[in-house]
Amino acid sequence: MSTVATSQIKLTPEHNARPGASMRSRLQDALPKIVLAPSFAATVVFVYGFILWTIYLSFTNSKTFPSYALTGPRAYQRLWRWTFESDPPSSWYTSIINMGIFGFLYIFICLALGLFLAILLDQKIRGEGMLRPIYLYPMALSFIVTGVAWKWFLDPGLGLEQTMHQWGWTSFHFDWIKNKDFVIYTVVIAGVWQASGFIMAMFLAGLRGIDGEIMKAAQIDGATTFQLYRRIVIPLLRPVFLSAFIVLAHLAIKSYDLVVALTSGGPGGSAWLPSNFMYEYTFKRNEMAVGSASAVIMLMAITAIIVPYLYSELREKPR
Amino acid sequence: MLRKLLIGTALASGLVFAAHAEDVKEVQMLHWWTSGGEAAALNVLKEDLSKEGYAWKDVPVAGGGGDAAMTALKAMVAAGNYPTASQMLGYTVLDYAAAGVMGDLTETAKKEGWDKSVPAALQKFSVYDGKWVAAPVNVHSVNWLWINKAVMDKIGGTEPKTFDDFVALLDKAKAAGVIPLALGGQNWQEATMFDSVVLSTGGPEFYKKAFNDLDEESLKSDTMKKSFDNLAKLVTYVDPNFSGRDWNLATAMVIKGDALVQVMGDWAKGEFNAAKKTPGTDFLCYRFPGTDGSVVYNSDMFGMFNVPDDRKAAQAALATATLSKSFQSAFNVVKGSVPARTDVPDTDFDACGKKGIADLKAANDGGTLFGSLAQGYGAPPAVANAYKDVVSKFVHGQIKTSDEAVTELVKAIDDAK
């Protein structure tokens, strides 16, 4: 940055003679930094500063309000104990098991469905311009709207089951949203419905970016359509997989509001995710230390997944 | 580079600060009473204050429920930006008082004679360390049955006096093809019903020992097991779709006659009122069978913060207006609750309200006025929520037997203490 600035001054030495101009050039030099400064400060304080603060709080005895006397890892000990309480399941146990089920299914189905839809839409079909937004629009809805709409649709007394009964299929039974063992899968359904269209758009952009020459060459060599996608297209889409994975992973971690709107926590708290646990303990139960500890564990878990993945993907780039 | 960046940051943040002048004749109020009836009731208070020349300013809270408001309040207090007053519940008041951020209303309280007129059980939450820190607005009670009269007549039921009567009544409704019990399967609703079940099963002494004193012997006693068994019995009378239902939808089932009865606090009466139903002719209010003479309460309070001196006059005016007899009557007629002072005339109240006022007075005199554990008036929030977890897990089958439920209850409450 500063090297650029000095070379500019050297190029126009006559400006240096007048103090006003020097002031201006110095201002010009500093302007990008002044403009960047607020967002830089905001990121440092509100992201990294508060991460450190949360870590600190998790080692205190904070209840309703933050307290600053360190009291050791008691919050972590409690979480550790709860991690193994499976019968009856502790809220923390339920949360992490749900996170595993939800995270895996949500990311996997979204990727698979998004890729599948993108390949279908990429067949130069008529009306693509109309179909694409139809798939994409659920992403424009907030989690809350998605949650409430699916809550009504899945409610046995209001939505799908009731409609089927009215149409005469009285043996139809679909009460997952009321069932403690299946409620987390309804969260997957609603989440996939919302995000898969967006993932489709990402893959579609990726597919459009693939050089047609390669495809033609492969076809001349006698590759079948399946081989074409399996061996050429999908490997070429690798950067898109990376972006889609990161988008989906962070959506999965933060889908607090979807759980609340769709299930209000589920029967007996059976739909909780770690984010629900964190909010409940920090703000409703006035156990800020436990809430902070759970937040730190969430951060560590996501780091453990994302960092190696990013590392392996980005390292190979300059190949 | 970095230094310049930091200097730039300091410059830019300097621009953000702008002093704002304070208007002294103003009351800043944080609350979540935004729905029709509640907002109308609160308007009475606004008008009372504006007559004395005080402007009213709502502190906006995004999102409906009290949770969002409490989070906002926490942030405001942490920033040292206290509102004049905030709607608060139970132990929250004491938490904030312990943190030393509450004001002192003792002078106003003395002048208005609150010590005598406000029930002693409520003063436990509105007085901290000998100082009045909050003005109670109302008293809700939890141990009520709300019954659709048309359905009751159809099945030929009478007021249940004991738990067994109640089960017999529910059986009658079941035989007639009506949903016997309207319940919303959210943890606070289940726990609110369980409050009444425990009071009915164990009696007032037991309730106090278990749910206000958190006595371990009582918590793991056979009486508590029996209470869980009774709860399990009641849950067999709900419809299969109860899980996750909002409380007002459960009330609507009773209003429409789809269900016979709901066990709910007296805020349910607001729903009946809004549907233009009259007590006695359209619906019936009974005490939960076996709990007549006792009142399990919760109460909305206006917590008063330690505001700067030039705002204290407005705060005192707000507190006086809140506990004035006229406002207490006007507000509670709409809200469905009963006044927070026992010397308010009951002339404007309907039959259920009159019964509520009389019951509160009797319970206050007889020492049978207890805080509801489910509503956060029996124990601090950590314990109350641990309790709700256990009850909800029992209702939904994660906890399978009453033996296990009792063990879990003791463990959860111990953990949270």
What does this structure look like?
The complex is a heterodimer of chains A (319) and B (417). With 319 residues, chain A is mainly alpha-helical. Helices cover 73% and strands 0% of the residues of chain A. Chain A has helices spanning 2-11, 14-17, 19-58, 74-83, 91-121, 128-136, 143-154, 160-166, 183-208, 212-220, 225-236, 238-253, 256-263, 274-284, 288-315. With 417 residues, chain B is α/β, with parallel strands linked by helices. Chain B has two domains: 24-140 and 298-361, D-Maltodextrin-Binding Protein, domain 2 (3-Layer(aba) Sandwich), CATH 3.40.190; 141-297 and 369-416, Periplasmic binding protein-like II (D-Maltodextrin-Binding Protein, domain 2). Helices cover 53% and strands 14% of the residues of chain B. Chain B is built from 19 helices and 15 strands. Chain B has helices at 2-16, 36-51, 66-78, 91-98, 106-112, 114-117, 120-126, 149-155, 163-175, 187-212, 216-219, 222-235, 247-256, 268-274, 312-322, 325-335, 351-366, 381-396, 402-416, and strands at residues 26-30, 55-58, 85-89, 127-128, 131-132, 134-136, 138-141, 144-148, 179-182, 259-263, 283-287, 295-298, 300-304, 338-339, 369-371. In chain B, helix 2 links the parallel strand 1 and strand 2. In chain B, helix 2 packs antiparallel against helix 16. Chain B starts with a helix and ends with a helix. Classes of the chains: A mainly alpha (319), B alpha/beta (417). Chains A and B meet through helix 3 and helix 14 of A and helix 1, helix 3, helix 4, helix 18 and helix 19 of B.
